[in-house]
Amino acid sequence: SIFLADYSSNKVLEYDFEGKYLKDYNFSPFWWTFEAIDRSFLISPMNLFGNELYKIKLTTYTGDSIAYFKNNVLYTSQDNLLYPTVKCFQHYHNEIVCRQQFNDSIYTFVPRTQNLVIRYYFDFGDAHFPIELLESSVKFTTESVNYGFVEDITETDDYIFLHITYKGKSEKYIIRKGLNEGFYKVEKDNGVLIKTAGLYFWPKWSNDERLVNYFSASDLLSKSDKIIDENLKEIASLMSEESNPVVVIATKDK
Questions:
Q1: Average pLDDT over residues 206-234
Q2: Which backbone phi and psi does 164 adopt, to 5 degrees?
Q3: Which pTM does this prediction carry?
Q4: Exposed, middle or buried, 254 (CB in 10 Å: 0-12/13-18/19+)?
Q5: Beta bridge partners of residue 160, listed in sequence order
Q6: Does the chain have fewer CB atoms within 10 Å around its N or its C terminus?
Q7: Sequence-ordered list of residues with C-beta below 8 angstroms from that of 153, at least 6 positions apart, any chain
């Protein structure tokens, strides 16, 4: 099945791969991001007021709770400012890689045992992000430039694609996994160059060692004269600034 979050109605809609509507599930309060696994939902609740008790919940499709995992990113919100995140979960073989915003630890959720364990920890040293900065938008805007935190992480069998904010700068690294680990800092802020399109790609998702993200219409149109790939060139020729983004699937060039 394909599950889509309908934020306007607080529902999750279920479709089959032919696009046929199957049913919907009503959830209140709604969550920010989720994964559907083993007839259950792994949920990242919205932490709008800084007092959400759980960073991750596991529920049945009908909303019955199966497991909870304590939230450690707690603060006293002064202006109810929401710090959104596009992605909290990534499937990795039979596990789920979990990231909580402003938490230096990356977790592994094991569906078979319903355990949540630390997968990686990033030590920002004297730039460790103080959670109190989330109390107000003024604090966050003026003081967060002194600290670092993980923005996103995507993992394959060979690499970790790490996006961080460090002392006001957006930085991206490719970390090589294995016995001779090393890392490569991506100098271009937008990612790695796709030579056949003149566009910079950074993976947001990974599936079966394929890397996935999307380009906006404006991205493609601004580089239309540099696109060599015939398929992408044809798509770009049919687009306008108002067109939907184009999903791009890439393979790694080691």
A1: 89
A2: -130, 160
A3: 0.88
A4: exposed
A5: 155, 175
A6: C
A7: 90, 97, 99, 106, 120, 160, 161, 162, 163
Instruction: Give the type of residue at 140.
Output: F
User: What angle (nearest 5°) sits at the alpha carbon of residue 127, between those of residues 121 and 131?
Assistant: 80
Query: Which residues are registered as beta bridge partners of 3?
Result: 14
Q: Are 179 and 219 in contact (CB under 8 A)?
A: no
Residue 137, both tokens: 């938008």
Determine the Cα–Cα distance for residues 91 and 39; give it in Å rounded to an integer: 15
Q: Which of 61, 57, 60, 30 is nearest to 46 (CA)?
A: 30
DSSP 33-102: EEEEETTEEEEEE--TTS--SEEEEEEETTS-EEEEEE-------SS------S-SEEEETTEEEEE-TT
Q: The dihedral of CA 114, 119, 125, 127: what is its sign?
A: negative
Q: What is the pLDDT of residues 182-203, one digit of tens each?
A: 888 888 767 888 888 888 899 9
Which residues lie closer than 8 Å to 228 by C-beta, 6 or more apart?
Answer: 195, 196, 197
Question: Tens digits of per-residue pLDDT, 139-181?
Answer: 999 999 999 999 999 999 989 999 999 999 999 999 998 877 7
- Which tens digits make up the pLDDT trace of 43-55? 998 887 889 899 9
Gyration radius (Cα) of the chain, Å: 20
